[in-house]
Each structure stands twice: as structure tokens, then as C-alpha cells.
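User: Run a structure prediction on this.
Assistant: Running it now.
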Amino acid sequence: MHIAIVGNIGAGKTTLTELLARHYTWEAQYEAVDNNPYLEDFYQDMKRWSFNLQIYFLNSRFQQIVEIQRGEKSIVQDRTIYEDAYIFAANLHDMGLMTSRDYDNYLSMFESVKEFIKAPDLLIYLKASVPTLVNQIQRRGREYESGIRLDYLSKLNERYENWISNYKEGRLLTINVDRLNFADKPEDLGTIIQQIDTEFFGLFNQKAKK
């Protein structure tokens, strides 16, 4: 089984990935952040480093999904390759932070690698307002995230909502982070696990009928 958790910066993807992997005793696959050689530079000068950053993410996430598909372990994944193209690269281009030449080149590479991957069995979308995102970004205290602009987070949220509303690749579960504090309240985490279990039963039943 393959669960992927998606959502804006600060939505709680890494935390939920860790908690679910521990609960189900599955393997967690995290986003490559700490070893990313472009992230800090990107937040300082988005226009200069946007293409470099997105190519790095595209490559690292493609390697990750190929490893997941080749393996036999059940996986909880922090962020997907789809977000790079449909959310981040597209938003950078619309904001004038990535040139059309770079964006077209990026999309061409994305379309090539997309032919070799499949959607997760369950996509979990962490829906959060900008104030909630800002609060959680401040709580974790990553220095390179201190320069993230509110309009950037807001535009990303708009793109997430548009993408999720048109998501047809597989099963989808939306979690409202404004209402559920799964990081600090076990009862809220339990509510999410119960919802996931319901989706699992549907998946298992569906496979059993085939």
C-alpha cells in the first residue's frame, strides 16, 4: 500500500507522515529538505533559483517514487511529484519567478517522467488556511523559511484547492488542519486514523472483488 500526504508549506505533512508510519508500522518516505542545496538560496532569491530548485525536486521525487513502486513495503510518503508541476512550478511561473523558457523546459521533463509513475493508493490532502500555515512555520523555526511571503502561501493554497477539486487519479481524503490538531491531540489523530481505516477497507474490498 502507498499513502501520500500533500499540502502547503507548514500544513503538517512531515508530522502526519511520521505519526501514521508509526501507527501502521509502515515505512516513512520524507521530502528531501535538509540536504536540499537550493532551498535556502531559493527563499532569498526566488527568481534566480526557482528552476534549479524545481529540477532538484523533480529528480529526487522521481527517484523516490520509482523506489516505492519497485519495492514491496507499505509506504507513507511526504509530498508527491505531482505537486512540483501542478502547484509549485506553475505558481512560480504565474508569479513571474520562473521564465517561460524554464517553465516549458520543466514541464517537458515532468511529462516524460510521469509516464513511468502511478498514483498512490490513497492521497491525503492537508487543507489549511494561511494563518494556520504561518503559525506552524513559525513553530518549527526553520531559518530559511522566515522569508516566505504571505502572498506566496496564499497563491499556493489556491492552486492546491484547484488541483484537489479536479483530482481523479485515485482515492482522496481531505483533512482540515484548522480544525484538527493531530500533532498535539491524540484524539484528533485518532479521528484521522479512523477515516483512513475506512478508506483502507474500501481499498481491500475493491481488490478482493477483482
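Strands lie at 2-7, 27-29, 75-78, 122-127, 171-176.
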